[in-house]
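Action item from last week, closing it out:
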Amino acid sequence: MSHDSPHQGANVPVGVQAIVRHLSAQGLSVGLLSLIQVQILSVADIVPELGSAIELQQSPAAKQMLSYQVSGLGSILGYDNSAHINFMNELQTMGYPQQSRNIAIANGSECGADQGYSAGATIASANATIDVPYWLNLLMPLAIFTNYPQAGLFSGIFTTDTDIRFVMDARALPDQSSQRVYYSRLYTKKKILFAITVRTTLFEKEFNSSSSMLPLDNGSGGVFDIEELGVNVATLPPEVQLDQLRFGFVPTYSALDMGEGQATIQSGDLFRLFSPLAPPEAPKGIPFDNFFSNPETNELHTQFTLQNGRWLMDELENGGGFYSCASRCADIPSLNISGPSTVCSSATFSVAGLPSGVGYVWSKSSNLNYISGQGTASYQVSKSGNGNAWVEVRVNDNCGLVRAFRRNFYVGTPSYPRTNPSGVPAIQAQLGSNITIRVVDFPGGDLSTLSWSTNHPSAVNLTPNGVNCVVECLSTGRHNIYVQGNNSCGSASNLIPIDVSSGGGGGDDCGTFPNPPCNPSLVSYPNPTEDYLMINIDESATSKENIANYHIRITDNTGWIKLEIKNHNIAQPINVGVLPNGLYYISVQGTDRSYLQRLWLNN
């Protein structure tokens, strides 16, 4: 078992490391200018914790484990990660135990939560002022015999006020950019004859991050809490401010050895979901047989909690612990439901890779029948009708239901291919023209299986090209174009009629079936109608005929005759209520003239 172990390194804010390495080397020395200097007092003597901290930073363990190691002392600071890199290479070469069940506990957040502050935030700061008495100011010219000879400048009987000031701030690492993470300055502020202000810097240091550094300080991970070390913030001088009391000590990705050190870790990996419901995938997979990440928040490094304790007991007793509160995470895991894209009779859909102990709640669309599998990782259904269908699964974790994840698919034979133009009403074309028909949708079908044909190959010439077909109109009359495709369950087709005329190009209300001239003299009303239809013909535009001598045909958009009346008296209504709703064409044939018009039936 690995408990919040730094498989890819640990973290101490480099701003804090810089405080220790810079200030611990500061002190007071005396001598003859810079030729001979003897240190008589150091900051570490005044603050012994600095001495302990510098010893800890320089220990082999710290150098091996810290991902970002500040090196040097005093004013000369830099980064040296060589010991860490060498140790990581050696550790990765050794690998994991091979004949065991390897498990890990991370104290970092399952949800990838941060530490409560942003990258680059101030961690600690100080702003202190010492008022130098006038009598001591008279002695300050003697500073020329110390390592701060500039402190003696402008000192003496004409200096009416002297302050020694110290300012400092340390900041959390920014997100992969070179920015200041530590700054300190010690300087004197003097008043000459109550009027002239003179500032003299004794030391000043600024230290920046590297642009390759990840924001580990506020990243998800096992927490290092300053107060847990016995630091009583309430007793600190008011000039010293600890703005952040905790930082990410062992990043969650490191505790779970994400990618085993072979994948490049990005800043987003610090705040990603670390859930057993949706573990990171290759090349950033987790090498453990099972793992625990702390629900919602980050806990103290190596802390045992009720949740991870119960999880560990399940592992020891049953060899398969599970605990997750991913349902409370903002970045809810994405579950992959596997299964076919087309179902002809029955099929099984499943969710793989989740640990034992997970509960499943499945649901389905209405055109499916349930067979088995509710509450398990596999769900079996059968089709009860054709069309678009879906199954959904919600995973039940320890804190609630994770949102539903859906897989869409198609059941049964495909629906007919939809085209543009649609052929409803029939496409109107002129003799010799070219018409392009395109399949714009084929629900449930495979577009690569489309084929085109016609019932009049001598009247229209087809040039098919996948979803497109160019129709060359060679002869007048109505010609039907067929397009057909299939899926694994069967095939479906569509018929697109084209009415070709020798001139005028046709129109929306008149056409050529079987080939009458376009004539607006025919009036049918009401249109649309629900049941009965009346016909009126402008006799001034026609030859005089017996009003009972008309031949009526009502056809659908494919040319099929749905209603036919011979020797119809146009003074009488026509009962069309027996026909289904839709678009029709009404043809009125006289002795020497014929008429064609659209008819909408909506009963």
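Closing note: Residues 2-247 form one domain.
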